[in-house]
Design goal:
Blueprint lengths: L8 H21 L2 H9 L3 H29 L1 H17 L7 H29 L5 H29 L2 H19 L8 H10 L14 H27 L3 H4 L2 H23 L2 H19 L4 H28 L6 H73 L1
Length: 405
């Protein structure tokens, strides 16, 4: 019997939409602060707010999306998110003052939060169970590629074009997302309607979060927090240690290593379980952070990029898969939003909090401390998920022996 098909029309289209969503997100993250300064004379702190408030909007969008998917289904939620994405992308042309720009950045974040959570849920609902780790691994590659290409394209526009060209390009991508979304054809999932009566009308936290996904999502928060400093302070760190040229290739090396390893890590998880992937990933990530903190030569900085891509990059996709696997099918939407809410919280709060430490630790000290945080996350993972999975494997093996006898 052959493998169940993974690269279906739905899988390919939803992955492409996710790629374009994340590309627009990161393209603007590296350019919008400069736009706020050049266009409206914003201070550095306000320009930072213009950039980071998007993440707050994304968190709000993710928080409401899990419940929305249970109420109206992932397909309708997907379309609503893309419609909001087009509208808020177009509104950049009409942000005539700083206040309107900040408001639109918040709303744009909400739109991306809704749409990207819906894409993750659709993938979880449609990939074959036997290939879920591999499928979510390939799907998350769409975001990985976008995080490398988005900033690159944004810097090109900043250097050779203007901000109106950026907004026009983004609107084109948003329109493409909406058009190709009509080719997605999802089967009905009866379990959602069946369980809907149990949800109730009053406020319950369980209507917005999937409790079973919280433990692994909390580990992702801690790991994302440790990585957030790399994202935010790489350019400052590179200037500080005189490795600006090498730093320009950091995310390229990161992405190449992730592209080469992701298919194997997903298959290994499907075959052997999450522990055999997660523990090595976190150890490799910690080594990468130590190398990063002690980089005195360009080759060491790029070696750190390879280790971080192999460790951190694979951890994220496997952790997301775990959040789906521990949740019942009709709660996949809530599980996806729960994972991204906590993960994004670590990525979003990290730069702000770590910024207070830099004057005391310096960049090298900061990244060395973050390697320690990764080590702590290994212990957290063991107690929050790894130990339980190990016991489950032992129980399955025991059951197999009993059945054999």
């Amino acid at each position: 019997m052959g493998k169940e098909k993974l690269w279906t029309r739905n899988f390919t289209i939803v992955s492409l939409v996710n790629f374009l969503l994340v590309l627009v997100y990161f393209l603007l993250m590296v350019t919008i602060a400069r736009y706020a300064v050049d266009q409206f004379g914003a201070s550095t702190s306000i320009a930072g707010l213009v950039s980071s408030i998007f993440i707050i909007g994304s968190l709000i969008g993710r928080l409401v999306t899990g419940r929305m998917i249970e109420d109206v289904g992932s397909k309708k939620t997907f379309r609503v998110g893309l419609l909001l994405f087009i509208i808020t992308t177009a509104l950049y042309f009409f942000t005539s003052n700083l206040s309107l720009l900040i408001i639109n950045r918040l709303l744009h974040g909400v739109a991306v939060g809704v749409a990207s959570t819906a894409t993750g849920t659709i993938i979880a609902q449609t990939v074959p169970r036997s290939r879920r780790g591999e499928g979510i691994g390939f799907f998350s590659l769409s975001a990985v590629l976008a995080t490398a290409i988005g900033p690159f394209v944004g810097m090109l526009f900043t250097r050779y074009g203007n901000f109106n060209m950026i907004f026009m390009f983004n609107l084109l991508l948003a329109t493409i997302c909406m058009v190709i979304s009509f080719a997605v054809n999802l089967p009905a999932i009866p379990a959602v309607k069946k369980d809907k009566e149990k949800v109730g009308t009053g406020f319950k936290l369980s209507n917005y979060l999937e409790y079973k996904a919280v433990p692994i999502s909390f580990v992702a928060l801690v790991v994302g927090f440790s990585y957030s400093g790399v994202l935010s302070f790489l350019s400052f760190y590179a200037e500080d240690i005189n490795l600006v040229d090498a730093a320009g290739f950091f995310f390229l090396v990161y992405s190449i290593m992730l592209l080469l390893s992701r298919p194997f890590s997903g298959r290994l998880m499907d075959a052997k379980g999450a522990n055999i992937v997660i523990y090595p990933c976190l150890v490799v990530f910690a080594i990468g952070m130590v190398l990063f903190s002690q980089a005195y030569y360009g080759v060491i900085l790029l070696l750190a990029a390879a280790f971080i891509g192999l460790g951190y990059g694979n951890f994220v996709s496997v952790a997301q898969t775990i959040s789906i696997q521990v949740s019942p099918p009709h709660r996949f939407g809530l599980a996806t939003s729960t994972f991204y809410i906590l993960y994004d919280l670590g990525l979003g709060a990290g730069p702000y909090l770590l910024g207070f430490l830099v004057p005391f630790t310096g960049y090298r000290g900061l990244f060395l401390y973050m390697a320690g945080v990764v080590v702590v996350s290994i212990v957290l993972y063991y107690f929050l998920h790894g130990r339980a999975e190990k016991e489950q494997k032992k129980e399955k093996a025991r059951q197999g022996v009993l059945q054999g006898n």
